[in-house]
Amino acid sequence: MTKFPNDFLWGGATAANQLEGAYDEDGKGLSIADALPGGPERFSIVNQANFDWKIDTTKYKYPNHKGIDHYHRYQEDIKLFAEMGFKCYRFSIAWSRVFPNGDDKEPNEAGLKFYDRLIDECLKYKIEPVITISHYEMPLNLVTEYGGWKNRQLIDFYENYASVVLNRYAKKVKYWMTFNEINSALHFPVMGQGLVKSNGADEKKNIYQAWHNQFVAGAKAVKIAHEIRPDLMIGCMLLYATTYAYDSNPANQLAALKENQAFNQFCGDVQVRGTYPAYTESVMNRYGFSFKDLDVTADDLKVLKENPVDYIGFSYYMSTAINVTDKSLETANGNLVGGVKNPFLKASDWGWQIDPTGLRIALNELYNRYQKPVFVVENGLGAVDKPDENNFVQDDYRISYLRKHIQAIAGALEDGVDVMGYTPWGCIDLVSASTGQMSKRYGFIYVDLDDEGHGSLNRYKKASFNWYQKVIETNGEQL
Ligand code: BG6
């Protein structure tokens, strides 16, 4: 098997809103994640016309409030990551911990101090921090008072926030990402853009306007980052779902190509190349509007052009198959990105179609499209774990999933792809983003906490913990 490069960044990934808890401590403001009800019906509640972001604890549970209490247990958690041999740790900064309302004049020093401590804890073990500036966690006030990312004013708020965290941490932190899974908004605009029915989520034009604002904000962050530290690497972050035509029918091939452009490629094309792609107008026309309907200034286009990202971070969980010719085919319901069921693939318990080869294809597609390094910053199997009486989980299903995906990365290296690293999602169990469940677990570390919020919060190593430790120790030789 192809060897992994010596500086390959093995690690794990998390997001502030899904593990920190302490949602109202030390001056933190409310974020959109704090107002999302827990449970598999999370998205259907949010999609109701009368969803108004009010926190109602008599009606719903809010698992993100407690997370897994990482805010108070980060030392124990980082120590476990170090024991696994992590070379890097991808986490996000909670915007609402630094700017509680998003539009505050001054940052919250107590919030910044937490990340000082977290970063130093990583560095103590020679773990390279990889920071996502905004991961599904914008200050709630920016949605209720400003209408979310479709409002241009957010560019300034984000620029200010990015400038504060970059100035504070860039000396110690080389790897950054601007927005988590920016393209996911095409299918669920609530998480990344703060758009729900009441503020225009149903109108695609708003999603594209919000994206434009995010592209500009992200490019400004890139500019600041490079001014502070020229060797700093700041990437975009895409949700990549490798897209196949269901069969060789040219109509399905064309539909797959268009879906690929609209979902996988559009955001990356702007952020990596710094210009809107040739198919922009055709995608927008499909949704009933034109590029000229968007609020885009000449200055915006200049900022985009001058500040492309340095690498492409992406999450990979599933592939999708596109069919427009046979209406009788079953849709892949669990797949966040739609499509039909692929008869060659099995799905996870949550219906996500498992496809390691799709990861090798994704890596090839991304690298050969952009010729910039690619970084697999999320991947993993959400599964129900059943601990034994000693709280040990024999998660062979997870090991098997990860092994095949790592083999796919090795295959891509063999294909000549420049892969920077691999940070499996939820390296420690945490609250699921799409369903707000604890029972959908990804971790190498089991956290004793259930969907009702009961449990000791104690941490226990799963079988996959020792397995992954060996993978890192042997630099991917022993899988
Ligand atoms: C990605 C997100 O979509 O997938 C994470 O960046 C998320 O925030 C992860 O947790 C897994 O999804 P879920 O819904 O199973 O938590």
Protein described:
By secondary structure, this protein is of the alpha/beta class. It has one domain (9-473): TIM Barrel (Alpha-Beta Barrel). It is built from 15 helices and 14 strands. It has helices at 16-19, 42-46, 70-84, 95-98, 109-124, 141-144, 153-169, 189-193, 204-228, 250-273, 280-286, 298-306, 356-370, 396-414, 463-473; strands spanning 9-13, 88-92, 128-134, 175-179, 233-239, 242-245, 311-315, 319-322, 346-347, 353-354, 374-378, 419-422, 445-447, 459-461. The protein has an 8-stranded parallel β-barrel, surrounded by 5 helices. Helix 7 packs parallel to helix 9 (204-228) and helix 13 (356-370) packs parallel to helix 14. It is globular, with a radius of gyration of 21 Å. The N and C termini lie close together (11 Å). 6-O-phosphono-beta-D-glucopyranose (BG6) is lined by residues 15, 18, 136, 180-181, 239, 315, 378, 382, 425, 432-435, 440. The site of 6-O-phosphono-beta-D-glucopyranose (BG6) has 15 residues, from loops.
Spans of 5+ residues with little confidence (pLDDT < 50)? none
Based on helices, strands and strand pairing, what is the structural class?
alpha/beta
The main pleated sheet reads as: 8 strands, parallel, barrel
Strand order of the largest sheet: 1-2-3-4-5-7-11-12
Protein name: 6-phospho-beta-glucosidase
Keywords: Glycosidase, Hydrolase
Active site: 378
GO molecular function, one term: beta-glucosidase activity
